[in-house]
Design brief:
By secondary structure, this protein is α+β, with helices and mostly antiparallel strands. The protein has two domains: 23-166, 60s Ribosomal Protein L30, Chain: A (2-Layer Sandwich), CATH 3.30.1330.60; 218-372, Porin (Beta Barrel), CATH 2.40.160.20. Helices cover 39% and strands 41% of the residues. It has helices at 2-23, 48-61, 63-68, 85-107, 138-212, 224-228; strands at residues 28-33, 73-79, 114-120, 125-130, 218-223, 233-241, 244-257, 262-277, 283-297, 301-319, 324-345, 348-372. It has an eight-stranded antiparallel barrel. A four-stranded mixed sheet has the order 1-4-2-3. A hairpin with a 2-residue loop joins strand 11 (324-345) and strand 12. The chain is rod-shaped, with a radius of gyration of 59 Å. The termini are far apart.
Length: 374
């Protein structure tokens, strides 16, 4: 009988304790996510709006207990974006204050309603935990701790996924920038080549004309007309530029025959400056100066003296090949000759008079072989 009474008493106690057991609730945790390296509380971000709505309903239900301090709100702030622990703790503090401000404004709570703790690392979020008054055993505490660990592990996985996504996006941006840079370089080279081709086509006729231009730096000259009269003639020309040349010609000869009864002797020096004209630099005009002495006796009376003059020249150079050309020239100007007449008596020159002659007209002519040295 006593055993039956004990069984009935145990059943009645179990029925009495069942409602209390149904009222026991585990800790409720609300997680609010933050953008990495940002402290602003974006309500629509990461499901924060739904989580905040759930928290508001819970706080509304237990506001009296919260304000009395019987059921405080445990706020934990986390930050992993800083360079060191101090920066992470400062960021965590700001984030915790952002979330608490929402509750203070919306639910008229006070700072005394919260127990705040900030952490460095493990993520970028804030948790709000409400401990509902209830009797919990050690197994329930372990279960809650395990749930909190799962929340942190889930947050860590999310952070790893976000980090991997950012690294992938950075790699894709770097690859796109590299390809864009290579394409820009290729386009630039193509434009330069096209411009160079266009310039070549445009300049090509001028280049051909420049090749046709008879331009050289230094040349040797020989007046073939003088050589035909047995008067050796040599000269040199220096082209200062394709259009300007400076030259000096010299002639010298001394001939006697019929036992010195006949004589022909001459020397001349003729400097000249020329201006070459046209695209081919074949035509030219110039200014020349002439000085020399002469002595000739083709009959009984001989003449000797000095000559001095100058004038303008003009002509044309006929290009034979890259090294040779023929220079046809004619000079017009003034020539002064102080002449002394003489006779030869018994091998002695006897002066018979003198005279001065002035000449205006052709003072020089030539068909000159030009050898272009370089």
């Amino acid at each position: 009988m006593s055993k039956t009474l004990r069984t009935i008493a145990t059943a009645i106690c179990a029925l009495f304790l069942l409602p209390l057991s149904a009222q026991e609730k585990s800790d409720t945790v609300y997680t609010f996510r933050f953008v990495s390296d940002r402290d602003m509380f974006y309500v629509p971000y990461g499901g924060n709006d739904a989580e905040l709505e759930r928290l508001m309903r819970c706080v509304e239900q237990y506001r009296a207990d919260i304000l009395s301090g019987e059921t405080p709100l445990y706020v934990d702030g986390y930050s992993a974006a800083g360079e060191d622990e101090a920066e992470n703790l400062a960021m965590s503090k700001i984030r915790s204050n952002r979330v608490k401000s929402e509750l203070i404004v919306r639910q008229q709570l006070t700072e005394e309603s919260f127990i705040t703790k900030n952490h460095s690392g493990s993520g970028d979020y804030v948790t709000v935990r409400i401990v509902i008054p209830a009797v919990r055993d050690d197994a329930e505490e372990a279960c809650l701790a395990a749930g909190h660990r799962r929340t942190e592990e889930s947050e860590q996985q999310r952070l790893e996924q976000e980090r991997a996504a950012r690294e992938k996006a950075e790699r894709e941006r770097a690859e796109a920038a590299r390809l864009a840079s290579e394409q820009a370089m290729a386009d630039s080279l193509a434009r330069e080549r096209a411009a160079a081709g266009s310039e070549t086509e445009t300049v090509s006729p001028s280049a051909e004309k420049a090749e046709d231009a008879d331009s050289y730096t230094l040349s040797l000259r020989a007046n073939l007309l003088r050589w035909a009269t047995l008067t050796p003639d040599l000269g040199i020309e220096w082209r200062i530029s394709p259009s300007v040349g400076v030259m000096v010609n010299g002639s010298w000869t001394s001939w006697t025959w019929n036992d010195n009864a006949r004589r022909y002797a001459l020397w001349e020096v003729m400097p000249e400056v020329r201006w070459y004209l046209g695209e081919k630099k074949a035509w030219y005009v110039g200014a020349m100066f002439k000085a020399g002495q002469f002595n000739y006796k083709f009959s009984g009376t001989g003449r000797q003296g000095d000559l001095l003059g100058g004038g303008i020249t003009g002509g044309y150079q006929l290009r034979l090949n890259k090294a040779l050309a023929l220079d046809f020239t004619l000079g017009l100007g003034y020539l002064n000759a102080d002449t002394e007449r003489y006779d030869v008596i018994d091998g002695v020159r006897v002066r018979s008079g003198n005279e001065t002659k002035h000449w205006i007209g052709p003072v020089n002519a030539g068909v000159t072989l030009v050898w272009k040295l370089f």
